[in-house]
Every structure is written in structure tokens, then in C-alpha cells.
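Ticket #4471: structure export looks truncated?
Reporter: QA, pipeline team
Priority: medium

Steps to reproduce: submit the single chain below to the structure queue and open the exported record.
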Amino acid sequence: MPAITTASLIEAAVLGIALAMDAMAVTLSNSLCEPDMPMSKKLGMPIAFALFQMGMPVLGYLGGTLIAEYIERYARIVSLVILVFVGGKMIVESVRELREPESCPATRLTWATIGLEAVATAIDAFVVGVSFAAEGKDVVLYCGMIGLTTLLCCLLVLAVGRRLGERFGPRAEIAGGGVLVFIGLKAFLGY
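Actual output as written to the record:
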């Protein structure tokens, strides 16, 4: 297992924040669409998002480890492709959201919907977990940091809510996508 350094802690935190952007956007959207949401759902939503954001890279890592011997030779390019794809997808979706904002659904938020949103926002994290296997990253450090930052970011969105949404909205997701692309380039160049 690689040693924990200040650089790896910072990289894990930045990656966690970047991956949390989708969950933050959904948290904001849900809280704006249902302002009288019960406290149990307000707190349950960030916890669900954090657990899935933390668990999905573990699954990706385990899957990536199974094929690691096949991708080890191409680890840098695999990481670059995965992270640029995920980051680029976030950027494209955010630009689309800026052009055509979504409206609130007519129904109330259910626990099943929160579960589906948690899975949907964590799919990118699954793919990033595959890159962890390719790069030999400390999966406990990175996944723990991803979960923690997602939880804290979503709680921040709940606390600051409407003002944060009006100010940043999809632009925060664009920044998150840019961070993923940057980390992919960093891995490709071997820094």
C-alpha cells in the first residue's frame, strides 16, 4: 500500500470534491424543489450520496484489480481516458443544464428516488475506481476522502442552499469536470 503523503491527501480531497459536484447539484435541486422537505430526508440525502460515492470506487477498484495485469502496461493512458471521459461528460452535461434548466418534478421526493439519485451520481466514481487500480492508488484513503468530501459538500449545499445555487449552479459541475480532466492529465504525464 502506498504511503500517505500530503500530496496524496490533497489529491484525494480535490478528487472527492470534483466527484461530489453531481451529488451537490442534485442535493440543491431537491432542496429547491421541495423546500419543506422533512429533516430526515435532508440529512439522509447527503449520507446516501456519500455512501455511494465512497462505495462505488471500491467496486470499480475491485473490478479494475481483476483486469489490472492487462491494463498495467497502459495504466497512464487508461487513467487519462477514464478521467477525461468522466470529466468531459460532467462538463457537457453542465453546459447543457446552463442552456436548458430542468424544472421541478410534480411529485414529492421519495427514499427510492434518493437511492436512484445516489447511484446515478456515483457512477462516475465507479469508473474512477478502475483508474485507482490502474495507478495502484490507496483505495482506502481515496474512497474515504471521496465519501467525506461528498458528505461535507452536500451538507454545505443544504446549509447555504438557494444562494449557492443562484450563484454557481451548473458552473460548479463544470469546475468539477475540469478537475477530473486535470487529474487524468497529471496521471498520464506521471506527476
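Status: closed, not a bug. The export was complete when the record was re-opened. Leaving a note from the reviewer for reference: The chain is about 85% helix and 0% strand.
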